[in-house]
Amino acid sequence: MKWRKAHKDNALEVYKAIKSGKREFGNRLSFLLPQIQEEREDAGMSKFSLFMRENKTVRENEKYAPTKSLLDGSGKPLAWEFQHISSKENENIRESSTMEVQVKGKPNVFRPKLNSSQYLSRMIVASTVFPDLYDKELQDSYGVMTPEELVFAMVDDPGEYNSLCEWLQKFQGFTRTFEEKVDEAKN
Questions:
Q1: Left (φ > 0), alpha (ψ -120 to 50) or beta: where does 115 sit?
Q2: How far apart are the C-alpha atoms of 88 and 125, rounded to whole Å?
């Protein structure tokens, strides 16, 4: 590239300016900017072209069978379909699952406390594409009234529910589970 050669040619000059304490060395580097912009235009790219939405990869939905108690006709566990949620959706779920609790011994002082069980159940509901957890007929068949209650009713084995939570957190991009972070904070 042209600017790299020019940079090498003037590197000694810039080094001497820095060593001598002169503040004008920044102006000496300004000659590189037109050359960089010219090369970028030659390549047909703006400085943000790689960040444009059309260059963003689409995250595919995935299937996971959260319970062995719901089987298809051939005796295999039914797979549910899950989608990725956005950072904004995750933040809304986190905020709706956080409450203010009073600090002991300090009147009128409150701190936020995340209800992790509620947060995880709401994340499961927001991520589930199939089955439709908002379907009234499905909710009525389990005798529940909310999608969160329906998840608990359908995946009623505690170990399976915990496995679902761990899988979903990894699917959503969390490398460590929420429980691992809580345990680390306690220690």
A1: beta
A2: 15
* CA 152/CA 77 separation, integer angstroms: 17
Q: Are 116 and 182 in contact (CB under 8 A)?
A: yes
Residue 133's CB is within 10 A of a number of other CB atoms, namely: 21
Q: Which residue has the tokens 């994340």?
A: 123
Say which residue the tokens 């809304």 belong to.
Answer: 92
DSSP 3-state percent helix, strand, coil across the chain (nearest 5): 55, 10, 35
Please report, in tens digits, the pLDDT of each residue of the chain (187 residues total).
Answer: 444 555 555 655 655 555 555 555 555 555 555 655 555 555 555 677 888 888 888 889 999 999 999 999 899 999 999 999 999 999 999 999 999 888 888 888 888 999 999 999 999 999 999 999 999 999 999 999 999 999 999 999 999 999 999 999 999 988 765 667 777 777 6
CB 150 within 8 A of CB 139: yes
